[in-house]
Amino acid sequence: MPDKFFISLKRFIPKPVFDFFQPLYHWLLAFFAAIIYGFPSRSLKIIGITGTSGKTTTIEFLHEIFQAAGFKTASLSGLRFKILDREEPNLLKMTMPGRFCVQKFLYEAKKAGCEYVFLEVTSEGIKQSRHKFIKFYAALLTNLSEEHLEAHGGFENYRRAKAQLFYTAPIHVLNSDDPNFSYFAEIPSREKIVFKASDWPPHLSFKLAGEFNKMNAIAALAFAKHEGIAYDVSKKALEKIEVLPGRMEFIDPPAGGVKNFRVLVDYAFLPQTLRKVYETLKPSPLICVLGAAGGGRDKWKRPITGDVAHEFCKKVFVTNEDPYDEDPLKIMNEVCGAHNFEKILDRREAIRAALKAAQSGDIVVITGKGAEPWIMGPGGTKIPWDDRKIVLKELAKA
């Protein structure tokens, strides 16, 4: 694979030298990837979806709407790769994969005759030039709040990284309710499509919980309207969606199983997204399982995440998430902060304990991983995992 060959070259370059030339290295990778696959984006309408949260969900909505309208579509997100009706899970543990992977995907979408491609674009991906040499038709911003602050050196740099996508696309789709709307609205564009919460259509029978999911649907509706898709088509497509894997997903017990409480799995891992999940589920009493990722990822959020859980949950189990090369117990202690949460290192044991602690009317809320297929350990090790499958197995034992 070309990407593995180029990436392996890093091992032969002294770290100080590599760090100095890192921007050029990433740019060259993007350039060679585009050359090898023949600049496929030139034949496609690529819509880059970015933001702090809601990217994957918005992509799922857009894919369904545009397919229902008769367009040939493809989408790439942290959840899955889809080309027409063919799909496969994203097992890479990367929301926006590497340059060769993305260009290959675009090439395959072009070969399949796709017209629109919905592509999840992350700030880390932009930082590493994964968006380079992709001809974007439109850029969509779901929302923006604190994330990847340590990796980018602060919120302003994080926002500036996101903004780079909008300098590459002629059409901008912006959330006017977001505090950062003015910043992005000042970026030059050929057209601006603006959406807001009050645009919610009153007769849409939407099955997904949460005001944040409604905002994602509004964003998809706004862009679909711009592309000439009738509202009735968009409405029917959205009303067909009953659940998205690992996104506000309630897990039903196995056939014949009996339980008097509910279990929900969600991807939320930031304090602000966790708060939205908990607020959506209130006033039900909440039994919460959570943790935080290691590898130097947003250490600032750990105690704040614990504070949010303390505010909303009647009982909290703090457990292992994706420690990478960090000490998982240290991460768990930082999440707990001053709170007397129950700490259980083994994630399966923590889920089991939460299910046992649940009483009639409770909701067990398991956050941080959603439908992710791995727990990431030291030295790049991957432990096969799926919170949803673990819940089903534990419920079957009850």
Task: List the keywords.
398 residues, single chain, 6-stranded mixed beta sheet, globular
Q: Please, what is the average pLDDT? A: 92
SSE-based structural type? alpha/beta
What is the 3D shape? globular
Strand order of the largest sheet: 4-3-2-5-1-6-7-8
Low-confidence stretches: none
- The count of helical stretches stands at 15
Helix content: 40-55%
* Percent in strands: 15-25%
- The number of strands is 16
The N- and C-terminal alpha carbons lie at a distance of 47 Å
Rg from alpha-carbon coordinates: 21 Å
User: Tell me about the biggest sheet?
Assistant: 8 strands, mixed
Question: What would you note in describing this structure?
Answer:
- The protein is of the alpha/beta class and 398 residues long.
- The chain contains 15 helices and 16 strands.
- It has helices spanning 2-8, 15-36, 55-68, 99-111, 123-127, 149-152, 155-166, 181-185, 211-226, 231-240, 271-281, 301-312, 328-336, 347-357, 387-397; strands at residues 45-50, 73-76, 80-83, 86-89, 116-120, 136-141, 171-175, 191-195, 249-250, 262-266, 286-290, 315-319, 342-344, 363-367, 374-376, 382-384.
- The strands form three sheets. An eight-stranded mixed sheet has the order 4-3-2-5-1-6-7-8, with helices on both faces.
- The longest helix has 22 residues, at 15-36.
Brief description of this entry?
By secondary structure, the chain is α/β, with parallel strands linked by helices. The protein is built from 15 helices and 16 strands.
